[in-house]
Design brief:
With 269 residues, the protein is an alpha+beta fold. It is built from 6 helices and 12 strands.
Length: 269
């Protein structure tokens, strides 16, 4: 678990002191070190509070691309990253670290927002693309890692926790309607308890430029309602199959594999 913060101002430069204060508020998420980066014009800021697990020596963040025109901060873990590291190096990338976090940076360079279809894991990350003057922020498919944002005084704020947004100057004001949603219906996928503070939903990414801010969905459950060419079955048919499966399980000697279970079953998420 790490903590990330990012700011993108449309007009005024950001204060390094504000960046450090916001990052420090996430120290409990990453007590092993903090990293900060402020753009030359002061309008973009990235902060990272690190819990060191992979690449203890060179894995500090933010991580910059070879030409230093793209930078990333990550909270989470990418699965199978060693294979992607070898693939990226074979394509000519020079990796600065052996951290799993760096693969998302170079995949973004190569594939843009489509890089998300190459990533598996539990993650929230923010990329600053200097060439296109774009913030690209994404959250994993199931929302295991948090990512909150607010737009206040012409500035976009992103962070792992809302307390970091408040530390950066976003007002902490209760949203009565959101409180009602939380009490009566268990919360909301996008809204939070605070006015003007939202979360990037699971399976979504956020794009922000000087002129616009948009949320896009890149993944969702896809369960077909019917298979082409397969005749429909009634509830009674399913109930009968369920009963048969139960009888087989109860009558089978211990250790014998059920004929109703496919040992090669694999679910690709």
């Amino acid at each position: 678990m790490c903590g990330i913060v990012a700011f993108f101002s449309r007009c005024l430069p950001m204060s390094e002191g504000v960046l450090r204060r916001a990052t420090q508020s996430l120290d409990h998420r990453g007590p092993d070190g903090q990293g900060h980066w402020l753009s030359q014009d002061g309008r973009v800021a990235l902060g990272h509070s690190r819990l060191s697990i992979i690449d203890l020596t060179t894995g500090d963040q933010p991580i910059a691309s070879e030409n230093e025109r793209t930078r990333i901060i990550v909270n989470g873990e990418f699965y199978g990253y060693e294979d992607i590291q070898r693939e990226l190096e074979g394509a000519g990338h020079r990796l600065r670290t052996r951290s799993d976090s760096e693969i998302a940076l170079h995949l973004y360079e190569d594939f843009g927002t489509q890089c998300l279809h190459r990533l598996r894991g539990e993650f929230a990350f923010v990329v600053w693309d200097e060439v296109n003057r774009t913030i690209f922020a994404a959250r994993d498919r199931f929302g295991i890692k948090p990512l909150f944002y607010a737009f206040h005084k012409e500035t976009l704020y992103l962070a792992s926790e809302v307390k970091a947004l408040f530390a950066a100057g976003v007002p902490a004001i209760w949203d009565a309607e959101s409180v009602y949603h939380a009490v009566e219906m268990g919360g909301h996928q996008v809204r939070t308890l605070f006015d003007g503070v939202f979360q990037v939903p699971p399976g979504h990414y956020l794009i922000a430029t000087d002129k616009h801010l948009q949320l896009h969905q890149y993944w969702d459950f896809d369960y077909p309602t019917a298979h082409s060419g397969t005749p429909s079955r009634s509830d009674a048919d399913y109930a009968a199959e369920f009963r048969r499966a139960g009888l087989v399980c109860r009558s089978r000697p211990r250790g014998e594999v059920s004929p109703w279970v496919d040992p090669g079953l694999h679910i690709d998420l």
